[in-house]
């Protein structure tokens, strides 16, 4: 006989699988969009790619923003029993990250197209460069600065409550420090991007997704009376 607890456990596992898939979607879309814009970010010598390429990249970033919010909404019902404040904070920070991403998408689209037409927008090179610069800054602020903060919030909760193996949140904490530090240095013009520093944060989300897919998150234990 199937009990209510069994049904809840099954629903939680489905929700955890959804969160895992959305984590993978965020990485596929963010990595896939970058070359479509015309090359590595923050390089003033690289020109913006053509209309179709930029439109495809922008669509990927829209999907990215939706997936970013989706991860937090999927995890919230699984995390709130372990720490409601941290779970809400994670949702809020992911929403903020997605908002910044969408600002960048909206900023760069006028550089290559007008709505409902294939006609060139007719903007000057300087205007196009300015729009791309806005997009570059939103990429730095959103995935570059806000993402490490929300990753830290989630990693600390998972670590303190032992909801997943300890090495997974440890990767998140180390990766967050490296990515945040690198992007602060980029922000102040002290260095360019160093791709290898992103590896621990990438490994954190991939490891978390790989764990959530088959196992989910440990349910909250009842408080003894």
Automatic annotation (TrEMBL):
Protein name: Integral membrane protein
Tagged with keyword Transmembrane: yes
InterPro entries for the chain: DUF4386
Transmembrane segments: 57-79, 91-113, 137-158, 170-188, 194-213
Key word Transmembrane helix present: yes
Keywords (A to Z) from UniProt: Membrane, Transmembrane, Transmembrane helix
């Amino acid at each position: 006989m199937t009990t209510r607890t069994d049904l809840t456990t099954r629903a939680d596992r489905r929700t955890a699988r959804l969160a895992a898939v959305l984590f993978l979607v965020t990485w596929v879309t963010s990595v896939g969009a970058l070359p479509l814009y015309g090359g590595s970010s923050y390089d003033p010598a690289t020109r913006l790619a053509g209309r179709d390429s930029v439109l495809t990249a922008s669509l990927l970033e829209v999907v990215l923003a939706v997936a970013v919010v989706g991860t937090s909404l999927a995890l919230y019902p699984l995390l709130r029993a372990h720490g409601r404040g941290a779970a809400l904070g994670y949702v809020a920070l992911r929403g903020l990250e997605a908002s910044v991403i969408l600002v960048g998408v909206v900023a760069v689209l006028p550089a290559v197209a007008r709505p409902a037409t294939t006609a060139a927008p007719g903007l000057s090179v300087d205007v196009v460069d300015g729009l791309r610069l806005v997009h570059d800054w939103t990429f730095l602020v959103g995935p570059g600065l806000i993402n490490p903060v929300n990753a830290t919030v989630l990693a600390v909760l998972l670590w303190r409550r032992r909801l997943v193996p300890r090495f997974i949140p440890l990767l998140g904490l180390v990766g967050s420090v490296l990515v945040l530090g690198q992007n602060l240095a980029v922000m102040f013009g002290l260095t360019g991007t160093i791709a290898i520093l992103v590896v621990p944060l990438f490994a954190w989300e991939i490891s978390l997704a790989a764990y959530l897919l088959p196992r989910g998150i440990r349910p909250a234990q009842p408080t003894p009376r």
